Amino acid sequence: MTEAWIFPGQGSQAVGMGRDLHDRHPEARAVFEEADAALGFGLAALCFEGPEAELRRTEVTQPALLTVSAAALAVLRAAGRRPAAVAGHSLGEYSALVAAGVLRFADAVRIVRRRGAFMQEAVPEGEGGMAAILGLDAGQVAACCEDTVRAGGGVVQCANLNAAGQVVIAGTAGAVEAAGRLARERGARRVLPLNVSAPFHCALMEPAARRLEPLLAELPFVDAACPVWTNVDARPETRGEALRSALIRQVAAPVRWEETVRGLGAAGHTEFLEVGPGTVLAGLVRRTLPEAHVRPAGDETALAALATAAP
Question: Given CB 3.0 to 4.6 Å as the disulfide criterion, which of 28, 56, 188, 224 pairs with 21?
Fold first, then answer.
């Protein structure tokens, strides 16, 4: 079996996500109930009904996305499906660890709520920023960031290496703007400021990583049932302790998604399921591995279609 399961991160949330799974599948409903109990508030209601402004708060978004992915995962497991490998984009790595049996879901949903709060608190809102640079390769974007920093522009670096010609930068607001201007001067097709509440996956997140580390140290991590491709190293890992370390390091380090997808392809994975809301990762996989077959697996319509296909 060559099927790899990939799990989305922040940005894939939408009001209404997961409701159809909750209403139609008792195993998915149990996941939402477990999340509500673990967190002590009605996360399910926020997923289903919003308000959108609340769902977009990082400390809510992160457990909400994890829970919807875990609900879809529960439906897949009930149908007898298992992945050959897993990977998740940023926050999605926690979903991948739940899928691989490394972390218990209740532990994961509690820790990502804390992770979201720590990341939000690391940089006061408005002082940081992120932007997507389209049309330059990673080396060119890194050079724009380095030249900006060298000129005294502040902190800015590559944060998400998503696909060829699609790199996200993060840092102090002024530095991100300056690096974006430099990228345009050097041939970027577009520079798109992102509507985010904090500059994720850059050095400004080091305080969040330090606060998260002792909490992760308290949680049981077991060895993975299948390879987990980590964001920070872009290679497969099964050892529980190494996967714990990767979660700490990924907070302030770039998400090496393009390398991860290429590595999965080189390892023989030609079938991908995007387990969770949206299809952002499907698009990135197709750009990186045009020959790959990527299917959504985050809502009732998609899961019903999978049920008629051979695992």
Answer: 28
Q: Which of these is catalytic: 12, 22, 25, 90?
A: 90
Active site residue 90: yes
Task: Please state whether 18 falls in left (phi above 0), alpha (psi between -120 and 50) or beta.
Answer: left
Beta bridge partners of 189: none
Average pLDDT over residues 63-91: 97
Q: Pick 128-196's CATH classification: 3.40.50.720, 3.30.70.250, 3.30.70.1170, 3.40.50.360.
A: 3.30.70.250
Same fold, 3-122+204-307 and 128-196: no
1 pLDDT higher than 70: no
How far apart are alpha carbons 146 and 114 in whole angstroms? 31
The CATH number that domain 3-122+204-307 falls under is 3.40.366.10
Q: Does the structure show a pLDDT above 70 at 46?
A: yes
Q: CA dist 94 to 71, 86, 136, 156, Å?
A: 14, 11, 30, 26
Domain-wise residue ranges, the chain: 3-122+204-307, 128-196
Q: Is 89 a catalytic residue?
A: no
Task: Tell me the backbone φ, ψ of residue 263, rounded to 5 degrees.
Answer: -65, -40
Q: Measuring CA to CA, which residue among 202, 62, 42, 211 is closest to residue 130?
A: 202
